[in-house]
Structure formats: structure tokens, C-alpha cells
Amino acid sequence: MSTTPLKVAVTGAAGQIGYSLLFRLASGSLAGDRPIELRLLEIEPALKALEGVVMELDDCAFPGLAGVEIGSDPEKIFDGVNLALLVGARPRGPGMERGDLLEANGAIFTAQGKALNAVAADDVRVGVTGNPANTNALIALKNAPDIPAERFSALTRLDHNRAISQLAAKTGAPVTDITKMTIWGNHSATQYPDLFHAEVAGRNAAEVVGDQEWVESTFIPTVAKRGAAIIEARGSSSAASAASATVDAARDWLFGSAEGDWVSMAVVSDGSYGVPEGLVSSFPVTTAGGDWSIVQGLEIDDFSRGRIDASTAELAEERDAVTQLGLI
Ligand code: NAD
Ligand code: LMR
């Protein structure tokens, strides 16, 4: 195990997700015993609040926390980072779709893409949580031409975890028995959580459930609209679960996914499964050594085809919108 601290940038560090995420990172949920150095980016008006969060990090006396730096200049904060978790962006409120945030948030990711391009470490990985996450990741990667596009991903792990939890509750199986879950497409209401390739204790999940009506009318909408349900109940969007999924995704990306299973990540499409090349779309992936590869050879029936196509059509529309806004 390396004893060189892993340099991890978190943007929007004084926000809701930040308040959970920083403590998970510092306590070892990401890198285990490897020390971690936190680089925290915020806008100027939020720096005072961030100072308070840093006092709390200090007060935890985390053995693995090798240092914390805060600031509002992305070129200073991203200098030499191995991992950048781009969380900072406005969340949606009740009645909004995540795509409504494109105009408000898109510009954040042009500036941060450029800064990462200029100063991040050669091995940087960039995970985008801020919404609309897939298209923000596309904006960031297009503004960072010297960083390979494969080093960017957007978070659909929260949807993946939500799908596992719903399936476990339906079947009575422990979450550890649920494998090969896939979220396809956009982190939006059009996403497609796929039970036809998932397994419950090694058996096909759709067959175990045996209820197509439940899959279409309960499972898929519950997972796809979970973010809105949380906003409705809490008055603000998911935070601790989003932080937890951000850690899960980064840990698996950097240190590898479980043998015999796969995870969902939104990554730049190479055209696999008919997803137009260049869109940042969620796929089943395995990860090893800091790289991901799309699981190949899954059979896609007409039902799944229609769902995947609908979500990727939305991603193409988002790409057109940010092109028109001059962000890519
Ligand atoms: P929040 O409003 O509590 O915090 C966002 C923080 O970002 C604020 O502190 C703000 O000052 C900061 N910020 C804004 N512009 C910035 C910039 N240019 N540089 C650095 N920091 C900046 O929001 P939150 O609840 O923490 O959510 C953050 C984002 O994550 C939202 O867009 C939300 O929709 C998204 N989200 C995504 C998922 C997912 O699964 N992909 C899940 C939950 C939330
Ligand atoms: C979520 O899925 O909880 C987040 O993307 C927040 C939202 O706007 O739904």
C-alpha cells in the first residue's frame, strides 16, 4: 500500500453533500489505510462556512487525514490532484427536472474542466456528481482536451444502489445477494434500471420477481424518480446517500470492482449497445487498476432497447443544448 497521500479535490465542499462526503473520505471509506489530502473548492461567499467544516474535520482527529487546503481558485485547489469529485452545483427544487439546471450549472464545468486540464496530476480521475451530472461531465471533458475522456465519469451509482435496495426489499434477499445491476442512460427520470441482467443469489432477477407489471409500474419509476421523492419529503435533495454513492463509485474506480459483479457508471460511449459515441451515458462496467470497461455481450430485448434509446435521446438533446450555449 502506498503511503503517499492520495490528493482528492471536492468542489462544493461547504454544501449538503460535502458535509457528509468529506467525513467519509477522511475516515478511510475511499482509500482504506492510505492517507488522504483534501483539496476543497468553494465559491468565495461559502469559504467561511467551509472553514467551520474544516474545524470539524480537525476535531475528528482522523489518523488518515494528511492535510486539508481550501480556496476558491480551481487552479490552486486542483494542483496535482489524483481524484476530483465535482459536486459543487446548484441542486434542483420541487417540480424541476435535473436538465433544468443545465444553464445555471453548465458554466461551472467549463471553468473546472479547463483548470483540471492545466494543473491536475497525470493520473487524475474526475467524478461528476453535480447535476445534470452526465452532461456536466461531458462539458468538463470537452474543456480538458489533454486529459483522456475515459478519465471522466458521472454518478449513476446512487441510482444503482437505489435499484439494489428496491430489489432486495421486493425479493426479501439481502443486498449482498443482488449482483449485476445496471443503470443505463441518463441520471434523470428517463434512466433505465435493468432487472433483466441482474441476479438475486445467482438467479435472474426478472425471473425471481416474475412480475413484469411490478417491473414497469413500480420498480423502474420508483428508482428513476427517487430523487424527486426525497426532495418532496426532505425539502432538499439527497445528500448522505449521494455522498455514499460518490464514495462507492470512486473507490471501485480507483481500487477495482468486485469479482464476478459489475457496477453502473456514466462514461463516454464508444458506441457499445447502440449508445451514440461520445455521449456520457450509464453502462454496466467493471473496473480494475483505475480503468473501466463496458461489460460486453449482454442481450438487449425490445423492451430494454426502447428504454435505453429514450434515455440516450435525452442525452443527445442535452448535448445539443450545451453546444448551443457555447459550453462545448
Ligand atoms: P448544495 O447547494 O447544498 O451545495 C452546493 C455547493 O456548491 C454550495 O456550497 C455552493 O456554494 C457550491 N458551489 C456552487 N458553485 C460552485 C463553484 N463554481 N465552485 C465550487 N463550489 C461551488 O447542493 P448539494 O445538495 O450538495 O448538491 C450538489 C449537487 O449535486 C447538485 O447539483 C445536486 O443536484 C447534485 N446531486 C447529484 C446526485 C447524483 O446522484 N448525481 C445526487 C444528489 C445531488
Ligand atoms: C438525486 O438523484 O437524488 C439527485 O440527483 C438530486 C435530484 O435532483 O434528484
UniProtKB/TrEMBL annotation:
Binding positions for NAD(+) per the UniProt entry: G12, A13, A14, G15, Q16, I17, G18, N105, Q112, T129, G130, N131
Keyword DNA damage tagged: no
Residue ranges of every copy of the Lactate/malate dehydrogenase N-terminal domain listed in the record: 7-149
Single GO MF descriptor: L-malate dehydrogenase (NAD+) activity
InterPro entries per the UniProt record, alphabetical: L-lactate/malate_DH (IPR001557), Lactate/malate_DH_C (IPR022383), Lactate/malate_DH_N (IPR001236), Lactate_DH/Glyco_Ohase_4_C (IPR015955), Malate_DH_AS (IPR001252), Malate_DH_type2 (IPR010945), NAD(P)-bd_dom_sf (IPR036291)
Known EC number: 1.1.1.37
CDD domains for the chain: MDH_chloroplast-like
Database matches in SUPFAM superfamilies: LDH C-terminal domain-like (SSF56327), NAD(P)-binding Rossmann-fold domains (SSF51735)
BP terms from Gene Ontology: malate metabolic process; tricarboxylic acid cycle
Catalyzed reactions per annotation: (S)-malate + NAD(+) = oxaloacetate + NADH + H(+)
EC primary class: oxidoreductase
Superkingdom field: Bacteria
PROSITE patterns: MDH
Residues given in the record as substrate binding sites: R92, R98, N131, R162
Domain Lactate/malate dehydrogenase C-terminal: 156-322
Keywords annotated in UniProt: NAD, Oxidoreductase, Tricarboxylic acid cycle
Active-site residue numbers: H187
NCBIfam families for the chain: MalateDH-SF1 (TIGR01759), PRK05442.1 (NF003916)
Function: Catalyzes the reversible oxidation of malate to oxaloacetate.
Family: Belongs to the LDH/MDH superfamily. MDH type 2 family.
Protein's name according to its UniProt entry: Malate dehydrogenase
Organism: Nocardioides perillae
